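=== RUN LOG ===
request id: a7f3
mode: sequence -> structure
chains: 1
length: 302
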Amino acid sequence: MTINIAITGASGFCGSAILEKCQNAKHNILSLQRRAEQNQPVCSVHFDLSRASELKVESLRDIDVVVHAAAVAHNKSKNKNEIFRLNEEATKILFNKCLEAGVKKFIFLSTVGVYGEHSCDRVITINDRENPISRYAHSKYNCEKHLLYHSKTGSIDVSILRLPLTYGRNAPGKFGLLSRLAKTSLPLPFAGTSNTRSMIAVDTVANLALQICEGKIPARGIELIVDSRTYSTRELVESIRLKQGAQKKLFYVPKSLMRFALTAIGHAAAYEQLYEDLEFESTIDVNATGCVDANTAPADYT
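=== RESULT ===
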């Protein structure tokens, strides 16, 4: 059955992947976007996080599902109030317009940052207590609470996808930085690194969002979504370099020395992300649900 799906952030990293999957499934797509694009293959309506109130409810009248992928995440120049306004307030406005328009389902991309951990010596589950630290994670967590509270009326189903580090071609953020670093010829100090980090492929996120849109996976509130396996920094760098036909060029430095050096220059969080564990337990088996495409290992996107 063809359904009507509106997507915010459809030109962004996750949003564009979701749009492509929905298009391939022959659904009707409405892109809620800041800028008009020439020769765009889908219908679009102007939507800007900074002016969310300007979106007309009539634009959503015939929409079955809204996928809210637009957010401000990797722009450190935004001040605290701006982060909350663009992420939190805009989401609340959009959701309220969906309620008024009679939208049946709302899918919201959130973050594992709501747990407030850069590293952890145990596996984090959906039942762990939230403790957001960054402005971005705080804004996402506040959105989650708003969506869950107002979805209790039963008039709209809500699915909140808490995502870990998401990898894919031209990924922003930490994976993008690590991928670019791996593509250099620089020797890197990861030879002894055997940490375990949860991640997810952007195409897996897109397939999952599509299945929730179609009702194959129910919208049941908060989901914690990760790949079925973990990755180490050493493995990521090695696999990317091997894919490029380059030498590994890794050398060993004791973790204690790297911790001291990175902490001394104000990058303690970077040490944790590169050398320590951060593993999550997924609430959905992405393999069993058929959400994992072939050739979606991190190195396949480089």
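=== NOTES ===
Residues 4-172+199-229+280-293 form a domain with the Rossmann fold fold (CATH 3.40.50.720).
The mean pLDDT is 93.
=== END ===
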